[in-house]
Amino acid sequence: MAYHINPNSGSVGKCRADAGNCPFGPVEDHYDSPASARLAFEKKMSANPLDRSTLKSLTADELRAVLLKEATEIGLDPKKIAKASLFAKELHRGQFRSAAPWEERPAYITHPYRNSIRLIRWGCKDQNVILGAIFHDTVEDCAEKYCDARGIQYSSPQEARDILLAKIRKDYGKRVAEIVLKLSNPYQSDEERAAMTIEQKNSDYAFHVEEAIKDDHDVLLGKLSDLHDNAASLHHTAWPGREKQTKKQATKYMQTMPAFRTELARNPLKDPVLRKSTFDSIVLIEDRLRDILEPKG
Question: What is the mean pLDDT of the chain?
């Protein structure tokens, strides 16, 4: 029996892939026991900082290097991935992820880069899905900025979204644009959002996720990787004074999880590696959110 390490989670697992086709590494990266797999993995991690199991520890430039390397290794078009990763970086320039008050806020682009790498490490080899993950927040968060920087006229935020989506469709294909559109939250004005209760916002978000992933495994994978990055690491945001906001976010994310379980039970993924990766992710997300919503002691 061969054992491998999932480089995204650091967990040991039995390899059920055909010889030479395991997404977690070549034949020489498989071992005859969990202990030997763990020992080899730890040595590898200490030798190459870009192979660290926690993607959160890598900078934007390091993540992009990992993305290009691992995308190339599974046969994706390196020029297209490189071009997309730079375009997304340009679109997200000046945007940052949240961080504790005593920490430097990371560049926002680290989030889509991590999502894309995670999908590859889960076993996804579909270039459209990886490109969709790279661009998943651009239409929602960067459309007006894109138009303004190029002097493109638009009459509304929705039209700006349509313009950027058309650019993605032209350069990366119809399917990538479809995935990005489904991964984008529908546009709502500030006034519309302000008039809604927290419960209404959470319900709308859960419904959006349910509709987006229905009968679409590509979008399901992209959205689950997105939630893995946001929800499974939410405990890092619960610094003193922010616990209430973290709990609100956890409530929002937890309401989406039944949709993933229902969709995957109704319409299972055919690939066994991807099927296990998504199940493990759902379990991890739910456990992490439960720890926030139902703290022990």
Answer: 89
